[in-house]
Write a structure and sequence with these properties.
The protein is α+β, with helices and mostly antiparallel strands. The chain is about 15% helix and about 25% strand. The protein binds zinc ion.
Length: about 80
């Protein structure tokens, strides 16, 4: 019997986020502030195609570590 292994979609890098129309939301607990990284802008402005899971993002205001949340940009489209 043949065993078929399905490869799960692995999204670990900025380019993966971009290719899946996702963005990376960042939240600073210290400032209670949300920010967002748009992968397409991140990459086109010369930043590395980093592994966003291990990448530590720092708040531009207080320098604290930011919490990460992956967002699907496609779900942000609302229609009447
Ligand atoms: Zn902060």
């Amino acid at each position: 019997m043949e065993i078929i292994q399905l490869e799960p979609v692995v999204i670990r890098k900025m380019s993966d986020l971009r290719d899946n129309q996702m963005s990376l939301g960042l939240f600073c607990l210290g400032c209670e502030r949300w920010g967002e990284i748009i992968p397409d802008e991140w990459l086109s402005s010369g930043n590395k195609d980093v592994d966003y899971i291990i990448q530590r993002f720092k708040c531009g205001e207080c320098g604290g570590a930011a919490d990460k949340q992956v967002r699907s940009t496609t779900s942000l489209i609302f229609q009447k």
